[in-house]
Amino acid sequence: MPVCCTTALGRMRTAAVLLVLFLGHIVAPLEVPLDPKVLEGLPQPPTITLESPKDYIVDPREHIVIRCEAKAKPPPSFSWTRNGTHFDIDKDPKVNMRPNSGTLVVDISGKDKAEAYEGVYQCTARNEHGTAVSNNIVIRQPRSPLWSKEDNPPIIVQEGASLVLKCRPPAGLPPPIVFWMDHNFLRLPLNRRVSQGLNGDLYFSNAVVSDSRTDYICYARFTHTQTIQQKQPITVRVVNMDAFNETWPVFLNETDFFGDGATEDRRPSFQVPSGPTSSKMVLRGEVLDMECIAEGLPTPDITWAKVSGELPTKRFTYHNFRKNLRITGVTEADAGQYRCTAKNTLGSIHHVITVTVKAAPYWIMAPQNLVLAPRERGQLICRASGNPKPTIGWFVNGVPIHNVPDDPGRVVEGDTIMFEDVMTGSSAVYQCNASNEYGYLLANAFVNVLSEPPRMLTPRDKVYQVIMNKPATLDCSSFGSPIPKITWFKDSHPTTLEGDPYVFYDNGTLVIPVAQAMNSGKYTCVALNMLGKSDNQVYLEVKEPTRILKQPEYQKVQRNRDVVFECKVKHDPSLNPTMIWLKDNGELPDDERFIVDSDSLTITEVTESDAGTYTCIMNTTLDQDSASANLMVVEQPDPPIDLELTDQKPRSVQLTWTPGNDHNSPIKSFLIQYEDSLHDRGNWHNMTEVPGTKITAHLKLSPFVHYTFRVLALNEVGYSHPSLPSQQYRTKAAVPDENPIGVQGIGTQPDNLVIYWKPLTGLQSNGPGLQYIVFWKQRGVDENWKSVKIANVSNFTVGGTPTFAPYDVKVRSVNEHGVGPEPSAVIGYSGEDLPMAAPDNVQVHVINSTLANVHWEPVFYQSVRGHLKGYKVYYSRQGSLHHHNPHHAEQQVITFNGNRTHGKLPGLHPFSRYTLNVRVFNGRGEGPACSNVEFETPEGVPGKPSFLNVVNLSLDSLTLEWGPPHDRNGRLTGYTLKYQPVNNSNDLGPLEELTVAANETRVTLLNLKYSTRYKFYFNAKTLKGSGPTITEEASTVIDEGHPEPPPHPHPLSPTSQSDRHPLHKAHPIVPAFENASFALREDGVLVSWEYLGPENKVYVEYIVENSNEEWKKEKVNNSQSHTLKRLKEGLAYKVRVVAKDHSDQMVHSSEELFVTVPAMTSRQVDIATQGWFIGLMCAIALLILVLLIVCFIKRNKGGKYPVKEKEDAHADPEIQPMKDEDCTFGEYSDNDDHKPLKGSRTPSNGTVKRDDSDDSLVDYGDGGDGQFNEDGSFIGQYSGKKERDTAECIESSEAPSPVNAMNSFV
């Protein structure tokens, strides 16, 4: 082993220099940063960063380059030794050293050969702080010697014998690669029988005649010189003994070298290695190759096993047809005995290879660079292992440590050097050499004594972003000597961070294992040593994680349909997400059918190629989330193919087919169809269906049919197209197997019998010439069967029969091959005639006012003259027993099927007179009627009153008028009136009840509450009870100057007209609207508000400012804003929002908004300046003035036009009652009749129905004449009003409608 100057040094990393700092005790090494600003003023001993390999075989065609690179501060100088002596490169013009480098370049392009520069080289790099040395670099020139001349005689071998062809390649540097080829440069085929050994020899376990050839050539390829050397060809002849003994004795002097017989089979024996055992040594970390090649007949098989254990998993492989066992990365555990076994049918043989593992030195702990501060302590450890154990040698700056002056602060203890109280200027490079007989290791490690205050290396104000619940790592990289102590602070808190949830590392890094939102903020790290301190600030932002809320789902879709995969994602709003869709972990196809939206993927017109796995990936700069779903494309299956008919028999056949592609949807069943080209060409019929798991069907056939079959496959999508038809299969004719079905005998006339049947199909005929034999005979008469043979018909008529006589009939099929089976007879009847007799002793028993029971005696069976179908009861109402009701004479009939003797007559009118008769009927018709029977129905409850009207409403009274029921159903005994108050929330008050005489048609209720809505229930009564109820609602009017009177009973008053003229006032308006405002927009005026009231009928009303028009309104649908689009440009409007109750009375109103709609510039002629327009406007204004004067006069006289009747009879909005806010006299609205009232109850004698309250004088003629006053208006509709109130109404309201004015002018 060379001394220090020749000892190789270990390779160091190029990324950084590692320093060790001792702070009162031995400390961990510190990495010196590569930041140029830090390194600029930092002294550093040399470090070898790049060198050539220890064993360097050069390429003779190129320059020799011996590499040596190092770094240091100040930069190092380089020198070389060759074969242990100084190599003066200045004296050799062929050798140059690269600038700022120790790399040598040797020019061998001239006459100088590479062998002139062979030797052992070592590089030295030094500066004022120390000296580093490289490994020994052995330079050698590659060699590829020629093959020695030799004469290879032909080799003659007996068939079946073993054979070895020697290669013996020349020794080269490095060793050559050996292979066998022929003259055509084709590799010779190798197999279990013929294989190549590790030494290059070619082994034949047993020779065959085909092995004979003249061009067995061994080649050696030298990789470094790129040359191939060739051995002389070897000729091999493999002979068969019979042919050999016949031809070769002439040439061999009749000497039989091989015996008389062929080579016999034999047990295996090893060709290599020889003997039962062998040994092999291998170095740790290298490749162990073992081989066992055996001969024998038949060819043996080779197996391997480790005697004392298992083969190393994942590190062993078999080669050369299991004749080689290779173990890579050998360790000490691979030592032991390995057994190879060769075995054939005649026996086996074993060979044991003992493997010994040695080891060149390898590092346990290589020495690391140390950076120490003055007066600190540290150590260098050089720990290596090997077999045998390596020796450790220490050097200082390339000189053995025992040859340098003693240092009291340095102590060498075997593989460790201890340093204590180091001083400035004691920096040096130490070399450690670990060596044994198999190699050596050399490592450089410097000790650099530095004094440096802390420096921050992490960029200032760096922002760290991390996902919530993920680790957050905050760097605080610093450098200083001694090693600075790192402390952390958060935000403006003066206390240092410590404990959970923080984790601190020696290099200053702060880790939060599970970051939360509360961990966001500013962090300050401070580095401190005895020479100073430095700080830095970083920021942590904890973000919300990206999550897929709605994942794409598995889809099964038919071809040509559309499919949508949804992928809805939630992410931190400060991060920019990117959605990516993948198909089968690759990009989506470049196809316009794939439409990617923000949260979905749509595939239109899906094809089979679109099936696969689709993945949506949501990426942000910090994290991602993904989800996948499969798409399965299904469609109807392909039609079956290869239809084949087998096992053909006269009445059956076996059909076999091959299913088509099911297109991802399993086949449920197969439908087999047939075509009969003889009887029904072109039409396919279903024959049978078999499960989808079967591909055969046994088909039963009929005679005389030309069958062709086809098959359809069915899956969940539907049926496939039909398969191609099978070959035609014809069955032979036979006698019919069946007779016609549906045989029946029915007479169509009293003197005939028609025999019907269902004809056989061509498939049922079983042969040509199909005919039918029809048989018949009368039952109960001693006569023979009569018959007739007919064809191509399905009925036969027998004439001259007695009326309605029973017959036995049957039909038999026959063809050219014979008759069918014996048919069964059925009973038929000849034709029917009308019945001759009427029922007797008809009686009627009245059960109640609407139901009666009828009894009769049945007619004799003989007189029916047919099948008795039943009896019919004809009855008619002759009239009511009450003289007020009109006469009714419509006839009704009720049928009782079968042989009945009684029945019920429902739905009769009470208090009426009826007549009825009964008739028997058969299939031919009805018989004569019995004598008429009369009966009367008793009284019942009456119908509802014709109408119910409310008139003459005042502050505390009103009048009801009604008409008697149209259907009195008896003698009226009186009427019942019930009524109760109803508040604005539809809650009902106490119920009052009155009884009214039958001859009354109106009643007045007094002492009612003013401004109160009442609901009325009214019905009529007879002795049998009360009839259905009709309802009506009305409200008393408001008088704001009078307090609410105390409640007291409401006596019945005689009918009279009130002298008072109260006015029905509007409900008081409660402020419930807030923040009403408007905004001008292009499409109109947007009105907004806030409504706090309970009503849901809200309107926006508007009117032109300073005009007398009515307020116009627009309904609002469940909103708190509305756009008015009908306002005219250039006009000023008043706008308000109102809420109305169920009776359309305004209960709330907003403040009025004054809106001016800006005028738009127009080039059109101003119509207001046209003469014709001015004249038209003047005429309209004059007409309106006249109408207003008339209206004012009529109102002062107290006359009013009818409201409720007009509303019911006409839908014209112009004649609806005026609303409260218009100061007019509407008292109620029909619109709320259909709404249920809270707490309402049904009176005990009737049901409250909406329809009952809709009757009026216009609908019924006999309800009584209306009463009129002097000017022709209805009496009691409304009362008049004081002049003062009328004047106030006119001042506060707009001009009345001209139509209303005309209606009031009667």
From TrEMBL:
<feature type="domain" description="Ig-like">
    <location>
        <begin position="453"/>
        <end position="543"/>
    </location>
</feature>
<dbReference type="Pfam" id="PF13882">
    <property type="entry name" value="Bravo_FIGEY"/>
</dbReference>
<dbReference type="GO" id="GO:0098632">
    <property type="term" value="F:cell-cell adhesion mediator activity"/>
</dbReference>
<feature type="compositionally biased region" description="Basic and acidic residues">
    <location>
        <begin position="1202"/>
        <end position="1222"/>
    </location>
</feature>
<feature type="domain" description="Ig-like">
    <location>
        <begin position="545"/>
        <end position="632"/>
    </location>
</feature>
<feature type="signal peptide">
    <location>
        <begin position="1"/>
        <end position="29"/>
    </location>
</feature>
<feature type="domain" description="Fibronectin type-III">
    <location>
        <begin position="944"/>
        <end position="1041"/>
    </location>
</feature>
<keyword id="KW-0393">Immunoglobulin domain</keyword>
<keyword id="KW-1133">Transmembrane helix</keyword>
<keyword id="KW-0677">Repeat</keyword>
<protein>
    <submittedName>
        <fullName>Neuronal cell adhesion molecule isoform X5</fullName>
    </submittedName>
</protein>
<feature type="region of interest" description="Disordered">
    <location>
        <begin position="1038"/>
        <end position="1063"/>
    </location>
</feature>
<dbReference type="InterPro" id="IPR003006">
    <property type="entry name" value="Ig/MHC_CS"/>
</dbReference>
<feature type="domain" description="Ig-like">
    <location>
        <begin position="46"/>
        <end position="134"/>
    </location>
</feature>
<feature type="domain" description="Ig-like">
    <location>
        <begin position="268"/>
        <end position="356"/>
    </location>
</feature>
<comment type="similarity">
    <text>Belongs to the immunoglobulin superfamily. L1/neurofascin/NgCAM family.</text>
</comment>
<dbReference type="GO" id="GO:0007411">
    <property type="term" value="P:axon guidance"/>
</dbReference>
<dbReference type="GO" id="GO:0030424">
    <property type="term" value="C:axon"/>
</dbReference>
<feature type="region of interest" description="Disordered">
    <location>
        <begin position="1202"/>
        <end position="1280"/>
    </location>
</feature>
<dbReference type="Pfam" id="PF00041">
    <property type="entry name" value="fn3"/>
</dbReference>
<feature type="transmembrane region" description="Helical">
    <location>
        <begin position="1172"/>
        <end position="1193"/>
    </location>
</feature>
<keyword id="KW-1015">Disulfide bond</keyword>
<dbReference type="Pfam" id="PF13927">
    <property type="entry name" value="Ig_3"/>
</dbReference>
<dbReference type="InterPro" id="IPR003598">
    <property type="entry name" value="Ig_sub2"/>
</dbReference>
<keyword id="KW-0812">Transmembrane</keyword>
<dbReference type="InterPro" id="IPR036179">
    <property type="entry name" value="Ig-like_dom_sf"/>
</dbReference>
<dbReference type="Pfam" id="PF07679">
    <property type="entry name" value="I-set"/>
</dbReference>
<keyword id="KW-0130">Cell adhesion</keyword>
<dbReference type="InterPro" id="IPR036116">
    <property type="entry name" value="FN3_sf"/>
</dbReference>
<dbReference type="InterPro" id="IPR003599">
    <property type="entry name" value="Ig_sub"/>
</dbReference>
<keyword id="KW-0472">Membrane</keyword>
<dbReference type="InterPro" id="IPR013783">
    <property type="entry name" value="Ig-like_fold"/>
</dbReference>
<dbReference type="GO" id="GO:0005886">
    <property type="term" value="C:plasma membrane"/>
</dbReference>
<feature type="domain" description="Ig-like">
    <location>
        <begin position="361"/>
        <end position="448"/>
    </location>
</feature>
<dbReference type="InterPro" id="IPR007110">
    <property type="entry name" value="Ig-like_dom"/>
</dbReference>
<keyword id="KW-0732">Signal</keyword>
<keyword id="KW-1003">Cell membrane</keyword>
<feature type="domain" description="Fibronectin type-III">
    <location>
        <begin position="1067"/>
        <end position="1160"/>
    </location>
</feature>
<feature type="domain" description="Fibronectin type-III">
    <location>
        <begin position="639"/>
        <end position="734"/>
    </location>
</feature>
<dbReference type="InterPro" id="IPR026966">
    <property type="entry name" value="Neurofascin/L1/NrCAM_C"/>
</dbReference>
<feature type="domain" description="Fibronectin type-III">
    <location>
        <begin position="838"/>
        <end position="940"/>
    </location>
</feature>
<dbReference type="InterPro" id="IPR003961">
    <property type="entry name" value="FN3_dom"/>
</dbReference>
